[in-house]
Specification:
Layout: H1 5-11, H2 21-32, E1 39-43, H3 49-57, E2 61-66, H4 69-79, E3 85-89, E4 102-108, H5 116-126, E5 127-140, H6 146-156, H7 164-173, E6 176-183, H8 202-218, E7 222-231
Parallel strand pairs: 1-2, 1-4, 2-3, 4-5
Antiparallel strand pairs: 5-7, 6-7
Helix pairs in contact: 1-8
Length: 237
């Protein structure tokens, strides 16, 4: 049986696998909650760590969506105590939430794993007028050899890595105004949030080792950014 990178994250119950870790999450949230927010959607919510933190600092209705069944299972167990949280096992494209019903969207290194253009358009549809989307994303700072680029994308399930400028182009094409672009520092001194069950398959440890080796190889060519985006108002007809 073959396992994916996302399977590994779910198996180890890693709560902050995205660039910048928990520090990046808190930075994104600090930007997001300065805007009016009665409802917040966490796209690719994973095991629910970010939603759990949000539930301690806001009374807003919180929604989480993840396409991985094991992630949602962990999230439900972790967030059962919070009545304000609603979880969906779904892709973002099939998410059963009404258009223009969400104030803020947070996506932590998730959009890259989808059809980026379609997902950004969906975020725009879900947001109320002037709603906010905060995207934490890995970016390509320097060109890679095709073989290494393909290896990286194949392992992580990406179509390709985008540069900062390519992200800006995609975001603008989805009818967002970009209010801030913040460079994120790599995780520094942060303990990996991980749980190891006694019955975990050895293949997951092999995947973890391969992940770290690949990241170390490609790190000089990577950056990461927080993109703070606001839905543009409708043009008068």
């Amino acid at each position: 049986m073959s396992y994916s990178y996302t399977d590994m994250i779910a198996a180890f119950k890693i709560g902050a696998a995205h660039p910048g870790g928990t520090n990046a999450t808190k930075k994104a949230i600090s930007k997001m909650i300065t805007y009016p927010h009665d409802s917040i959607l966490d796209v690719g919510c994973g095991i629910g760590k970010t939603l759990g933190y949000l539930a301690t600092i806001t009374n807003s209705k919180l929604y989480g969506v993840d396409a991985h069944p094991r992630m949602i299972k962990h999230a439900r167990a972790h967030l059962d105590q919070f009545a304000q949280v609603m979880l969906f096992h779904s892709t973002i494209a099939a998410l059963p939430i009404k258009d223009e019903s969400i104030d803020c969207i947070l996506a932590e290194s998730v959009t890259s794993f989808t059809n980026i253009h379609s997902s950004l358009k969906k975020y725009n549809q879900l947001l109320r007028p002037a709603g906010i989307a905060c995207l934490i994303e890995l970016t390509l700072e320097h060109e890679l050899e095709d073989e290494l680029h393909n290896e990286f994308c194949s392992f992580y399930g990406l179509n390709r890595l985008l540069s900062k400028d390519e992200w800006l182009t995609q975001i603008k094409a989805a009818d967002f105004a970009i209010t801030e672009v913040i460079s994120l520092k790599p995780e520094s001194g942060e303990t990996l949030d991980i749980e190891i069950d006694n019955d975990i398959a050895p293949a997951y440890f092999e995947l973890m080792a391969y992940h770290y080796a690949l990241i170390e190889q490609i790190r000089p060519s990577l950056s990461s950014y927080l993109f703070v985006c606001q839905k543009k108002p409708r043009q008068p007809s």
